[in-house]
Amino acid sequence: MLLGLILLGFLLALVKLYLVISGESLAGSLDSASGSVQKQLRLAHSLAVAGSTVTVEPASHVIITDSNLHLDRSTAGVADRVSEGIGARPDGLADVASLELLAKGRAAVVIIAHDRTDCLERCLKSLVAQPDAGVFSLVVSLDDPKSFEKMEAVVDRFREQQPFAVWRKPSEPDLKGGAVAKIGAHFRFALSQSFDEAGHEFAIFIENDLTLAPDFLWYFRLTAPLLEKDPSLFCVSAWHDNGFRELVSDERRLFRTDYFPGLGWMIRKDTWASIRGIWPRFPSTGWDHWLRHGSGLRPRDCIAPEVPRTHHEDEQGTNVRTGSEIAKLLARMATSTLPHGQLGDVSYLLNDRYEAHLHGILKDAPVLSGLAQLDSIAGPDSDAERYYILPYVREDFKLFAKRLLLYPGQPRAARKGLVLSRLPHSPKVWVALVDRRQGQGLLPEAERWQPRPGQQLLAAQPGESCDGACQRLGALRCEARQLEFANSCGALRGFFACEEGCGHQVGSEIPAYVHDRSRDTALQCLVTDEAAPTCAAKHPSTSRLCVCVPA
């Protein structure tokens, strides 16, 4: 009898340890497991009706597996310390219970795959090696009927290590727009299956040409609660567009950006619900650009790591080809080697704390007059980090990106026009690029570009330049530097119907509305984050949105 009581006490202690680690109550744990089984069964039924295949392993969502105990072993002996900040970060786990790690049965990991068996095999190999793989429902989503059998054969080789479901996207023979449209349609399918059919609360999406850093899933488990607690966030991404080896070094530092990074990302079900009805049929420059500009999710942010948690492997895809400029950029990217469980408290990323610290480190930072001054601040390394502010405008960003070795084209990894990056090869020197039109409250008034008093927004006639439109009103003229103030979906919707939504394009006549119904972007409003709009530009298929100032 006594021995039985001792054994019972030992078992209860083990259960308590597990619950502390997972951040759940016993009732919540059992309810979550039961709910997960029901969701898997609903998914199996829905996919059977659709003619797809699915592997259902209900028991795997009830049994407490050893993978859930990695937290205790991997963090043993790590000192508990929480430090706030952008340049600063935590070294260890401060309070495991307070982190509310994403628990088993709440989220899916979905691999987006087409027809490349070699890519899929590499991706699956790195996924099943993750200590936290058993916490998630694992899925491979396929969209090429001719390749279903060979791709599923690859998945079968990994099913002994982890249970995988396979989703088969129905073909859309009438879909127009080539590979870009097909990729967008596949993501829409995978999003709908994850949230509408399977009923997951969270889902992580990975293209199959990516491999994963050692703490990839731990990173998402740790940051998922931020999406629940902070309404100013909509996603967590494993990618950093400026994560080049010359610029990054701190594998524990995370930051906020309003430029959607992609390449391994997580959202909640409510975010999908907000964009499901407006997902574009033809995102002409890609679904990811639409998500940044046309989805309405801005000004909400994403969490991103300084050192990426994914690595791009393939150079034979739709967007990345051997020898291309983007392939050369990706070859420079760093990938984190931080072990599982070493990333610590992330509460410093909550909006109020993040804003306060950002303002604190930059409010007294010297303002540089231009790129030429960068050479003077690159001195020898010191123990203290130094911060400098460098004003820029989007039209000239390529010059700044070239000098600072940033991603060219547009200000990626920015937040409210602010790009914070290390000076190349100078890990203690930080340069804060601050958009003159947004200012972040950091620029002196003399350094800011603001709307001119008396300026007016005007919808030009079809095919008309802004020079012509402003002159037609009399006593007004177009001023090129003011056109950027009209370069937003919100501004365009105030003047045009935008029946097919708002999208992204490249052109000096943008922002504009496509009135020509023969164009693939017909009835869309278009914005740009690459080309610089000019007053003289015009296009026969578009109607411009102009900014006119007193002559």
UniProtKB/TrEMBL annotation:
Organism field: Polarella glacialis (Dinoflagellate)
Membrane topology: Single-pass type II membrane protein
Assigned protein family: Belongs to the glycosyltransferase 13 family.
The entry's keywords: Glycosyltransferase, Golgi apparatus, Manganese, Membrane, Metal-binding, Signal, Signal-anchor, Transferase, Transmembrane, Transmembrane helix
GO molecular function: alpha-1,3-mannosylglycoprotein 2-beta-N-acetylglucosaminyltransferase activity; metal ion binding
EC number: 2.4.1.101
Signal peptide: 1-17
Record field: catalytic activity: N(4)-(alpha-D-Man-(1->3)-[alpha-D-Man-(1->3)-[alpha-D-Man-(1->6)]-alpha-D-Man-(1->6)]-beta-D-Man-(1->4)-beta-D-GlcNAc-(1->4)-beta-D-GlcNAc)-L-asparaginyl-[protein] (N-glucan mannose isomer 5A1,2) + UDP-N-acetyl-alpha-D-glucosamine = N(4)-{beta-D-GlcNAc-(1->2)-alpha-D-Man-(1->3)-[alpha-D-Man-(1->3)-[alpha-D-Man-(1->6)]-alpha-D-Man-(1->6)]-beta-D-Man-(1->4)-beta-D-GlcNAc-(1->4)-beta-D-GlcNAc}-L-asparaginyl-[protein] + UDP + H(+)
Pathways involved: Protein modification; protein glycosylation
Any GO CC annotation of this UniProt entry: Golgi membrane
This protein's name: alpha-1,3-mannosyl-glycoprotein 2-beta-N-acetylglucosaminyltransferase
Named cofactor requirement(s): Mn(2+)
Record localization: Golgi apparatus membrane
Source organism superkingdom: Eukaryota
